[in-house]
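FAQ: What does the model actually see?

It sees only this:
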Amino acid sequence: MCEADAPPPLADLAEGSLFLDFDGTLVALADRPDAIAVPRHLAPLLDRVAAALGGRLAILTGRALADLDRHLAAPHLAAAGSHGLELRGATAQAEHTAGPNALVHARAALAAFAAGAPGLLVEDKPASVALHYRLAPERETAALALAESLAAATGLAVQRGKMVVELRPPGPDKGDAVRALMAEPPFAGARPVVVGDDLTDEDGFRAAAALGGFGILVGAARVTEARYRLPGVEAVHAWLEAGARD
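And it is asked to produce this:
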């Protein structure tokens, strides 16, 4: 693990399989998950990159796949949703993982907690529930403590991210999604490249490295499993544009 700071060479993309996080990587973060602005050029850009790579492009996101498809007009792309709990392969349909009964209790507890503090937002997903506190950062300690308490009581797993904490069933993560997609055409045999900004992307970075590839951190330099770094969303778009031309 090191502090990545160098930009990735395009030569490593040409023969790679590319796995892209969505929020904070392809689109700028917003105060609310439904408030993101998706650039008009993004879907056509991803199509050009996918064509240049022979279809070896997938989206890795914490969003549910149905939510991703509402924002990004590219449902034909391979994708992993809910941090790996949902998988849409290059040839397979989406697999929706039903949440356990424990999620009912977790959803109710998080909703009650959020009701008592302006700025907190509960995001209900098919297989998990997330509590966003970007607009109430002073509630972070209490939010994390509640999540840990609920996890201990229900057997759910805690998934932390940028100003959000999520409760989900133990199971596949973004690294597992990378491994699953790398086992099937057209990804198999290529070098995996994972691009992401959040703590949840570290699982993908580790999986890529174990398979002979690497990760690219998006945002400020920090200790990471990624080998390279791009400073932000616009830099990711520019790197992808250059890759699509080469």
